[in-house]
Amino acid sequence: MTRHSKNCTAGTVYTYHERQRDTKSSGYGSKSARFGKDSIKNFDCCCLTLQPCRNPIVTPEGFLYDKEAILEFIIQQKKQIARKLKEYGKQINKANEELHELAKAELETKKQKLISHVEAPSDKNASGKDDKSICNMNNGKGKELPSFWVPALTPAAAPTKVEKPDEKVRCPMSGRPIKLKDFIDVKFTPINDRDSKTALISKEARYVCAVTNDVLGNSVPCAVLKTSGSVVTMECVEKLIKKDMLDPINGKKMTDKDILPLQRGSSGYSASGHTLEGKKYGPSVMA
């Protein structure tokens, strides 16, 4: 009966199709979906603006940015770090002042105790009788309780403690420290399709490999040559470049560190890298 379970309603077996249908209608269980190509950033788009780069530069980890966007990001991060450092400095100065005041008050208390022991004060007044008045201003209590209507012992909330900020500007994708000198200029080779009317941004296939002229895309792994900044396919790297370890564009010698695999995808709205599946975990029903 399970072979035609989708159309059978009299079977004694709770089939997989029926279980999935009931789970979907009840709202229980985990749900998964596959994202389309519109949810994934193109390989030649900036990781910040998600738009095609006008002046592309790449990090040593292979993340592509538009030069203007990443410079603006670095400037904003430095301003934010400077503001946090200023707040942290004010907090440290205030804490030092409080410690100084506490030490001064403790020293003054010790002096008063020493003076009171030396003078041996008496609780009797000028008439020789004990002063047992209930007034709060007698016997030096005026300084302890300056105003009886002011709640001197009311608890106060402590100010929010500011942690010491990280002074390094970090990559928004990898989280590693970045510097402007570490970026590498990227040179894409435009496709030669003899279509001068259509803008380059409107084309689906915009660039090709600088060596083999293969069309580049999200489904084609590619790399940036650090010596020339050209973009080539990983197939070209494995079959041609790694044989002699020479840059085919300018003939310079290369090492493995000069080959930077270009990261694909990595859109914050769907998934990281080239992962096309999303999963949402929900409550499960115990049998």
Automatic annotation (TrEMBL):
Major location (coarse): cytoplasm
Coiled coil: 78-112
InterPro entries referenced in this protein's UniProt entry, alphabetically: NOSIP, Znf-NOSIP, Znf_RING/FYVE/PHD
Superkingdom assignment: Eukaryota
Domain Nitric oxide synthase-interacting protein zinc-finger: residue ranges: 4-78
Location of the protein in the cell: Cytoplasm; Nucleus
Signal peptide per UniProt: none
Molecular function per GO: ubiquitin protein ligase activity
One GO term describing the cellular component: cytoplasm
Family: Belongs to the NOSIP family.
Protein name from the UniProt record: NOSIP
